[in-house]
Hints:
Layout: H1 2-24, H2 26-33, H3 37-62, H4 66-88, E1 94-96, E2 100-104, E3 113-122, H5 128-133, H6 135-147, H7 151-154, H8 157-173, E4 180-191
Antiparallel strand pairs: 1-3, 2-3, 3-4
Helix pairs in contact: 1-2, 6-8
Amino acid sequence: MDENSVENDLEKSVEESEKKSLLGKTGGVFKKIFKSKKSIIIIAVSFVLLIYFGAGVWFFFFKANPEEGKTIIAAEKRLEETEVREQEIVFEDIVELEPFERIPLKASSTMGLVSMNLSLELTDPRYKEQILTMEGSIREIITSQLEEMMWVELRNPEGKILLKYNLLKRINAIFSKLTVRNIYFTYFIMQR
């Protein structure tokens, strides 16, 4: 039993010393891992793959997409082109009349004067010449209609709509065909 116990004690001490060398010493762990060439290759390949994965993540999240940059530049150019086109757009069926300044309303009004700008929308752009030749008569119609109205009538939207429809009837009456489709008040202010 002495020999068995000595052998057992010897085996236990060897196992303990191996455990201590593996756990306690860093060199022992690396010696065990890097003992074979196969484990070195596996670790090196894993390290290279980790670097490639990190680079891929960096390019995906932080690198600007060149196609995206081209898209932004193209969108900016289109925006500039549309701004230029908007400045060049001329509505052929709209005639803007000269401003009406300080036209007197009915005498019993609190507000005695009206200043306004208006535009006429034509049913056909070919009628533009007729409107321009009859502009004096149209201005007289607008002035006389305003002079017949009171401030109380024009202070709310319903009064302005009434003015608009009365003007449409009277202006279209001087032409043989329906010429003016709509009237737009672009500026409308009443004064004392």
